[in-house]
Amino acid sequence: MKILVLCYEYPPIGGGGGNVAKSIAEQLVARGHEVRVQTAALGWKSVRETIRGVGIFRTASLRRVPDTCTVPEMGLYLVTSLRPTLRHIRTWRPDVIHAHFAVPTGVLAWAVHRLTGVPYVLTAHLGDVPGGVPEQTDGMFRRIAPLARRIWRNAAAATAVSSFVQELAEAAYHRPVTRILNGIDLSDAPPEPLPPGTPARLIFIGRLNPQKNPVFLIEALAQLRDLAWQLTFIGDGPLMGDVRDAIARHDLGERITLTGWLEPAAVQRALGTADILCMPSLSEGLPMVGIEALKHGLAIVATDIPGLRDVIDPGVNGFRVPLGDLVGYVAQLRLLIENPEQLAAMKRASWEKARRFELTEIAHEYAHVLAEAARRD
Questions:
Q1: Least confident of 35-39, 161-165, 172-176, 329-333
Q2: Tens digits of residue pLDDT in 163-221
Q3: Is residue 18 part of a domain?
Q4: 3 state DSSP class of 209
Q5: Torsion angles phi and psi, residue 115, rounded to 5
Q6: CB 276 within 8 A of CB 299
Q7: Rounded to an integer, what distance in angstroms lies between the CA atom of residue 69 and that of residue 179?
Q8: How confident is the model at residue 264 (pLDDT cuts 50, 70, 90)?
Q9: What rounded mean pLDDT belongs to the chain?
Q10: How far is the C-alpha of 360 from the C-alpha of 124, rounded, in Å?
Q11: Of 39, 115, 126, 235, which residue is the least packed, with the fewest Cβ within 10 Å?
Q12: DSSP class of residue 357?
């Protein structure tokens, strides 16, 4: 099967959604399929490369930075990728299109389908559906509602990366949506237990923006100064100044390490030496960092948002605390830091839960959906 993947960002450009697209594309190649990816480049230099058997076509655009994409830059991806996508279809003749992100990529998939008849499959992430990130996207969805309905109605199949996104998509567009969770490679060995007397090793990974709520975490840790812990902050973004100010205000500079963005291998090493993933986010779809935490056997202390239901079993491998409940968040962190036996049990539970996200099985689910969509042509 020839699969043309459309995704407006693809590593090293982009975040979690792009990494999902990459892992699935590589797995599909490993299963014997031919895969091309049409994506955006930084700046105005187009790039063609092959990575792990996946042909990647990065078309020049105005995208300026790898980790953030503005609405105009998304629009330019659609404009600059239309002709190359049509060229793929004319010369390479794919059997099916796999569009990651209903918005904006679904617009390109729908337009190309209308012009060529090639069927497409949508994979929806949190920001792709009304109600996913309401403070950021609901106004946009009201404006593009007629187009969005056409995109979803004309898709040969639709998938969602979490139970929450699936529910939102089915409610908004009144069509069946298949849940296919984000996947991870579980070939690594299980995590080592925390040595006795070692300070609890906490980690935060993500963009430092309001959605990820990083200052909340610092305010919580300021109330745990009496306990032994260290925090590694991986990421960067518009709230970096606020994060630095909060650390200085609470005199936590010797206990919190700010790394900025790290290469994927360095992130994996950091996860491998951590005990607790802290996720005070205000909204999430199915965050890859949460799944990676399962793989490395981390307990997770997060906010009680629907996008984390597939990752955290409360009281088993972590806790979900009501949004804005600083006292509750502090209490759950204190419970784990003060009770190494319970922390060790939750870490083991995370490792066991990771089996549900085995990447080869997830790729099999995608291959089945894509093959069924191709047969509908």
A1: 161-165
A2: 999 999 999 999 999 999 988 888 765 666 666 668 999 999 999 999 999 999 999 99
A3: yes
A4: coil
A5: -85, -30
A6: yes
A7: 26
A8: confident
A9: 92
A10: 20
A11: 115
A12: G
Q: What is the C-alpha to C-alpha distance for residues 307 and 314, in angstroms, rounded to an integer?
A: 14
Q: How many domains does the chain have?
A: 2
Choose between 126 and 223: higher pLDDT.
223
Tokens of 237: 């973004």
Domain around 174: 2-183+358-375
Q: Which residues of 68-134 form beta strands (DSSP E)? A: 96-100, 120-124
User: In Å, how far are 196, 207, 245, 348 from 299, measured between CA atoms?
Assistant: 17, 21, 28, 8
pLDDT for the residue numbered 192: 63
Q: Which of 207, 75, 235, 220 is nearest to 133 (CA)?
A: 207
Q: Domain with 169 in it: what CATH number?
A: 3.40.50.2000
SS3 290: helix
How many angstroms separate the Cα of 285 from the Cα of each of 54, 164, 182, 309, 372? 26, 7, 10, 10, 25
Instruction: Kindly report whether the global pTM for this prediction surpasses the value 0.70.
Output: yes
Does residue 288 contact residue 19 with C-beta atoms inside 8 Å? yes
The confidence score (pLDDT) of residue 63 equals 86
End-to-end CA distance of the chain: 13
- Helix-helix angle 288-295:340-353, to 10 degrees: 110
In a domain, 176, yes or no: yes
Is the domain of 40 the same as that of 154?
A: yes
Contact 234, 202 (CB under 8 A): no
**Cα–Cα separations (whole angstroms), residue 152 to 96, 133, 148, 189, 337:** 16, 19, 6, 41, 46
d(CA 47, CA 41): 7
Q: Which residue has the tokens 């006795």?
A: 196
Ranges assigned E (strand) in 69-215 = 96-100, 120-124, 157-160, 178-179, 200-205
Q: What share of the chain is helix, strand, coil (3-state, %, to 5)?
A: 45, 20, 35
Query: What are 38's two structure tokens?
Result: 């049409």
Same-domain pairing of 173 and 215:
no
Alpha-carbon gap, residue 222 to 217, rounded angstroms:
9
Residue type, 209: N
Cβ burial of 215 (10 Å; 0-12, 13-18, 19+) is middle
Instruction: Give the pLDDT of residue 364.
Output: 95
